[in-house]
Amino acid sequence: MIRRTGLILIVASLGPLAQSADLDANVAESRAAVSAFGPRLKTALQSAIQSGGPVNAIQVCNVQAPEIADSVSEDKGLHIGRTSLKLRNPGNKPDDWERQVLEDFNARLATGEDPAKMEFYEVVSSGSGQMFRYMKAIPTAQVCLACHGVDIDPAVASELDTLYPSDLARGYSVGDIRGAFTVEQNL
């Protein structure tokens, strides 16, 4: 009887350690998903720009980006996407949790934090139980300015206006937070 009680205490005391290990695994899986999605998207964008200029790259974001996100989601067993406070695609609208994290990222940027290193994660309750949520900031790079900057070529602007009539994703400068990768995992 004493041995059994001691065993239960040991197992119970490992609870927080096991939860911490699970959280570390969720973070690692989320980072791996972002590392799979981001570079694939960037490679597709660079290839499109090289073969047909920035107008050609718009099709990558419009068609290929959701396909890449779906592929990575399926491969990793989670849901990955992109969101922003200044939307181009209304289908990427942030929910309240994502909006709060994006606003926090902008506040952190204002204090001088490097946006390339910004991430946030936590376990939240949802209607179907516990969910692990993760976000990684997407800093605006020089290449992004062709479609997201201030001085956009008229041909690019015309294509954006055609595909995204409610586009708000313009006016960025290098180093601004363009948006974030967002990952959800049911626990």
- Run of helices and strands: HEHEEHHE
Task: Provide the spatial order of strands within the biggest beta sheet.
Answer: 1-4-3-2
Terminal-residue CA separation? 34 Å
- The amount of beta strand, in percent, is 15-25%
Low-confidence stretches: 1-18
CA-atom Rg in angstroms: 20 Å
How many helix segments?
4
Number of strands: 4
Q: What class do helices, strands and sheet pairing give?
A: alpha+beta
Oligomer status: single chain
Helix coverage percent of residues?
A: 55-70%
Q: What would you call the shape?
A: globular
Question: Main beta sheet, described?
Answer: 4 strands, antiparallel
| Rounded average pLDDT | 88
Number of domains: 1
Structural account:
By secondary structure, the protein is of the alpha+beta class. It has one domain (20-186). The protein is 56% helix and 18% strand. It has helices at 2-76, 96-110, 145-148, 154-163, and strands at residues 79-83, 119-126, 129-139, 177-186. The protein has a four-stranded antiparallel sheet with strand order 1-4-3-2. A hairpin with a 2-residue loop joins strand 2 (119-126) and strand 3. Helix 1 crosses helix 4 (154-163). It is globular, with a radius of gyration of 20 Å. The two termini are 34 Å apart.
